[in-house]
Amino acid sequence: MANTQTSVPAFTAGQVLTAQQQTEINTGIPVFADETARNNGFGGTGEKVLAEGQFAYLEDSNTTQYYDGSAWLSVGGTFALTLISTTTIGSAVSSVTVSNAFSSTYDNYKIIISGGAGSTDGSLKMTLGATSTNYYWNGSYGGLNWTNTINGDASGGITSSLGVGLFSANSIFANIDLSCPNLAKVTSYASQQVRTATGGFFGTFGGFLNDTTQYTAFTITTSTGTLTGGTIKVYGYQNS
Questions:
Q1: What pTM was computed for the model?
Q2: Does the 81-237 domain belong in CATH 2.60.40?
Q3: Would strands 72-74 and 63-67 be described as parallel, antiparallel, or unpaired?
Q4: pLDDT tens digit string along 75-122?
């Protein structure tokens, strides 16, 4: 984009500015591609030190933010949820990775997967980072408890992922609340799932990942078949 920048320079007396630097000044508020670029744009060699009252605009979420001395907040009031990213699900894919989903800005997140369709009926599973063990979860599906033969264990057994959603030939849906994925704490979750097939299905699940790694990304995979279309939207709950 025309106004995108990667740093906020600290100018010195008598310095001759380049055309790009003058464009950045004329923009008014520094414009960054995303949170990662914003965080990297301050405090380096020749860069402005981040301080209370600093503004920034993020292109990926179309939000204007200000720094209150300890955290970035959205302009216009403190809202419960802030859209962080939107990832479009491709065509006939069995997995989708969302990078830079979690950061120190938020403790808790909501992830909504919707739209599109599956090649068959199936369930959606989530893994964080490269972790493949120490996931514990259980729940109910159509009024029945999962057993350890169907991706989860009602008695709390170890699995390789979290059960987070359902899909069919005419829908993909998951509504997930995720706590502390980027903190050095155990990550916990709860999700609601709907499959709009003949008769319809509804599920509720909860559990945790038993480690204290600070994750920034997650991957959604299918239990069977593929997905086409729809989006994965990640929102952050404001800390205050």
A1: 0.66
A2: no
A3: antiparallel
A4: 865 558 888 999 999 999 999 999 999 998 899 999 999 999 999 988
